[in-house]
Design goal:
This protein has nine helices and eight strands. By secondary structure, the protein is an alpha/beta fold. The protein is globular and about 50 Å long.
Length: 268
Amino acid sequence: MVKYVHGYSARETERLYDQSSILEDILHTGTVYPPGSRVLEVGCGTGGQTVILTSRSPGAEITSVDLSPDSLSSAKAMLGNRGAKNVAMLRADVFHLPFEDRSFDHVFVCFLLEHLEDPVGALAETRRVMRDGGSITVIEGDHGSCFWHPHTEESLGAWECLIRAQADLGHDSLVGRRLYPLLVEADFDVLDVSPRSVYADASNPVLLDGVVNRIMVPMVETARERALEMGLVDRATWERGLEDLRRCGDPPAGTIFYTWFKGIALKA
């Protein structure tokens, strides 16, 4: 069974699409693939990042894979509605990719390693299907980098429930800070790992609302039942924490900050 802390609800699909559009310029700036290049996107999910890849690199030949058939179905429908022509989608396991050695010029991975028990093994398998000299781009978040105001112990507790619920699955929502050593361990030649941060306050109310109420709060909500089952918190305290977190999206006082990490490496 696929272990994904956020689940596969319609609300989670909506959150993923919101997240990709809100963060496009922050995360995708600098990621463009030349016409004719063969690009593999691993862990495409519902296609939120895929649609950006296809639009920013319309001449590239993109293959996007995911293990969840439901997510792939959503991705195919969305990309079809957007008229994407340069992408093929199929079901595949990142640890056993159905491609020959050196099949791709570039690999793109976004928000995947945090949900794997063996991120190095996954990276090593992507390296196998890359040509010599090919590049990999990896983007991962780090929940330990999130700060907000107004801050309460209950809002912090709700956020930490998400971190602990994910860790209980054997996964790491703090993986962003490990990106450089993970790439090195997988035998890549790392060119750069850089932080990609978002800060929002009342001077940009649209961004503030987007980051808090369309990304962060819905993400925390997905861990509610698992956190309660684990006995991390009682329901009333958790609800207060989520409500306090929502208040960070209210101007004029609300603010929020979060950092993702983007790594670029080569197959030597």
